[in-house]
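Please review the protein record below. Tell me whether the encoded fold seems credible here:
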Amino acid sequence: MTHEFVTEIAPDIYQARLPLPFALNMVNCYLLRGADGWTLVDTGINTPQARERWQGIFRHLGIAPRDFEKVVLTHVHPDHFGLAGWLHDLALKDDGRDLPIFMSRGEYEFFPYFWEDSDAAPMVDHLRIGGVPDAIIGTIADSFAETLGMTYPRPPRFLPLTDGEPLRLGERTFTPINAPGHSDGQVIFYDDADRLMLCGDHVLMKITPNIGLWMGTQPDPLGRFMRSLNDLLAYDVRLALPGHKTLITDWRGRLRELLEHHEARLERAADAVREGCATAYEVAYRIFETERFTAHEWRFAIAETLAHLERLVAQGALIRHDGPVWTYSP
């Protein structure tokens, strides 16, 4: 059987492509079949279109929520966990079972800070730190609140994965690997028997993962991301399964491309400051093509620009001047 939005990409591993209401309009989720049921890696965001897509995929595969053993999240961004509560409720209604939903311990500890409070005030303060004008902060904050609304209902609980402990997904055993940068506690999964990597949003083809400094995240996310990419060069990967875009067949080649991309962007950011740009908002105009940015995209652009400026501070190339707005100088 074939289906437009689900593909078997390895024995008993299916890629499901779910729609997103953003410029990045698709997220990849993965279903792994096992003797004790199916494991779902990531869920998509909660929109009518995504729910309808899942129902079509369930029909195609001949499965129902009662057939799921567990859900595992690579990280807790809305496009990856937003349908967790809906799936939990379907399974509960289907057979009265409390479907377990797992995330890394790092994400588990961070989740309440970032996602359980629907108040956009921390986001507003963060945008002000980046030098975003008040005239557009409200629009960006409204976009954040709208995205947050696409993560309800929430499951009654999430469960933390045990750090470093091998994890069975379907019939395969994966090693969880901490992969910070895009999200502090993002975890990716390596099957060394098949040289297969479920890499979440840590490594993507055609686009680069957003590496942002957000409120409450650990310092220097870009530095941690680049160190992680260098560490991952040691892994022998024949096929990587990313959270967006196409499958990755040249693992080490793509890692090197991402490292080169960020080195070049760091140089552009440093040049912008040397030429008089002082805030993340001003520098963003120099390192992104901002003409058609939506409010959603501006939020990510500010966070990513801050991450690059903070990496330059950590390297000693720039000085940060604290205040209501962070400014930078050579």
